[in-house]
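Weekly sync, protein design subgroup
Attendees: M.S., D.O., the rotation student, P.L. (late)

Item 1: inverse folding check
M.S. brought a backbone from last month's batch and wanted to see whether the design step gives back something sensible before we order anything. D.O. pointed out we never logged the input encoding, so this time it goes straight into the notes. Structure tokens as presented (222 positions):
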């Protein structure tokens, strides 16, 4: 029971978390990466924004920054996010920010949320089958499970490779969430992440791949 509660909470953790403008100065490299994100949005606005038929048209870059890619959008909605022309550049810039340890501060929880937001672009377009997204599957299974205490049977077994991909994504979060997911992994005995063939945007972030490619990331079992 406790476990189900925690897992649901973890899914909520990234909700509404945005990097914002409040990042402190860490290094020139980090400043350049932040600037790259701003420039993407600005150039996108200049190129694409305008009034068409009385409506303001948003650029792909600004569109992406306004939504939470981890929210439930259904498979079709997730598809639309993942074909966004600005997705890869956004995902790759955020990945470099994690690699360069750009998220720092006094509040560990806040820093973890910033890292998770950045890493959400690694996970959001992970599919487990053609046009089938982990984000959608997890949200559906969690919702179907309701208050069931059979977390392994009702959720973890059902989400299959998405669990391990999710666990790796959550390794960018707090120590408490890492411990919780390791506990679930040990309890339910789950294995491999989904294939990188089903994720065009995942990359090596300090040896963490959320899909199965490259170095196998081993988190110590709690
Ligand atoms: C995404 O961007 C990175 C860095 O610019 C590049 O290496 C990679 O090939 C791109 N991937 C896709 C799918 O466009
Ligand atoms: C992944 O990136 C790290 C640096 O963050 C590097 O040390 C390591 O060699 C890379 N691994 C692979 C397989 O590319
Ligand atoms: C992870 O564990 C596997 C199996 O024990 C091992 O083969 C692999 O080298 C480990 N990877 C790392 C990065 O420690």
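Designed sequence read out in the meeting:
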């Amino acid at each position: 029971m406790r476990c189900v509660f925690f897992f649901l909470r973890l899914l909520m953790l990234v909700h509404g978390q945005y990097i914002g403008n409040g990042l402190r100065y860490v290094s020139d490299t980090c400043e350049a990466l932040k600037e790259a994100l701003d420039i993407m949005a600005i150039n996108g606005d200049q190129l694409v924004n305008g009034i068409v038929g009385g409506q303001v048209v948003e650029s792909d870059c600004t569109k992406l920054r306004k939504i939470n890619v981890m929210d439930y959008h259904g498979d079709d909605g997730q598809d639309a996010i993942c074909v966004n022309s600005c997705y890869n550049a956004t995902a790759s810039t955020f990945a470099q920010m994690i690699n360069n340890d750009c998220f720092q501060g006094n509040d560990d929880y806040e820093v973890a949320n910033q890292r998770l937001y950045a890493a959400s672009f690694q996970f959001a377009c992970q599919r487990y089958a053609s046009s089938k997204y982990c984000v959608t599957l997890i949200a559906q299974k969690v919702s179907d499970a309701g208050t069931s205490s059979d977390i392994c049977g009702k959720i973890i077994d059902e989400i299959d490779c998405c669990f391990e991909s999710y666990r790796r994504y959550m390794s960018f979060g707090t120590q408490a969430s890492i411990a919780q997911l390791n506990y679930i992994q040990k309890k339910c005995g789950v294995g491999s992440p989904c294939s990188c063939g089903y994720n065009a945007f995942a990359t090596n972030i300090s040896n963490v791949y959320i899909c199965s490619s490259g170095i196998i990331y081993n988190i110590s079992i709690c």
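Discussion: Strands lie at 50-52, 55-57, 127-129, 132-133. The longest strand covers residues 50-52.
Action: P.L. to compare against the previous round before Friday.
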